[in-house]
Amino acid sequence: MTTSTLYLFCAAAPPIDYVAGAIEDAQARGWTVCLGLTPTAADWLRDHLGGLEALTGHPVRSAYRRPGEESMWPAPDVICFAPVTANSLNAWALGLTPSWPVGVVVEAVGKGTPMVAMPCVNQALAAHPQVDRSVAALREMGVTVLYGEGGWVPNPSGQGRPSAYPWHLALDAADLRLRQREADGQA
Ligand SMILES: Cc1cc2nc3c(=O)[nH]c(=O)nc-3n(C[C@H](O)[C@H](O)[C@H](O)COP(=O)(O)O)c2cc1C
């Protein structure tokens, strides 16, 4: 069984209520999971952070370290940002670092870390032209972006089904990125 490390990053969208199930699925696939949350997502899950730390066996991270502080996490083999909001997606594509998880993935582009992103945006957010631009820009950077057929399909406003967020597709893509990395001899 692999002991590869998956950084699972989540932004503030309703599917995060079900992140424990995604973590358990990733662990069943052999991943060591480290959970990172945007500050808003961490606030939404504030009553569950202890349980999520117990589940992953690592601190849940959402804030930048102070200079000189150790990370406490192993290095990632793959980073999966799901769900990623329009806010965090656009910041990532533009190279902005407004939150710790977005800062990590912006830097990880330069490091060549294999990454997967699956947005969670409704049709109104998706209609903003920057969203398509961000998806295209991230794909050009080598990020696997699961958006459209075979990934996240934007729902009409008010008709989201958070429990049906397809985490398994993001984990399938993370598994694939790991296998590609191993085949490329970088593992
Ligand atoms: C109840 C609720 C549901 C939301 N759902 C979404 C969503 O599905 N997608 C999205 O992009 N933003 C959604 N938002 C807005 C984000 O939470 C907001 O843009 C936030 O600033 C994102 O910050 P983050 O990217 O740092 O997590 C929602 C907000 C609320 C209050």
Describe the structure in your own words.
- By secondary structure, this protein is α/β, with parallel strands linked by helices.
- The protein has one domain: Flavin prenyltransferase-like (Rossmann fold).
- The protein is 42% helix and 14% strand.
- It has 8 helices and 5 strands; from the N terminus they run βαβααβααβααβα.
- A 5-stranded parallel beta sheet has the order 2-1-3-4-5, sandwiched between helices.
- The protein binds flavin mononucleotide (FMN).
SSE topology sketch:
Elements lengths: L4 E6 L8 H10 L3 E6 L1 H6 L4 H8 L21 E7 L1 H9 L5 H12 L3 E5 L3 H4 L2 H12 L3 E2 L21 H17 L4
Parallel strand pairs: 1-2, 1-3, 3-4, 4-5
Helix pairs in contact: 4-5, 4-7
Using only CA atoms, what is the Rg?
Answer: 15 Å
What name does CATH use for the topology?
Answer: Rossmann fold
In this entry the ligands are:
flavin mononucleotide
In the CATH hierarchy, what is the class? Alpha Beta
First-to-last CA distance: 15 Å
Alpha-beta content class = alpha/beta
Superfamily (CATH H level) name: Flavin prenyltransferase-like
Q: How would you characterize the largest beta sheet?
A: 5 strands, parallel
Number of strands: 5
Output the keywords.
5 strands; globular; single chain; alpha/beta; binds flavin mononucleotide; five-stranded parallel sheet; 187 residues
Quick overview:
The chain is of the alpha/beta class and 187 residues long.
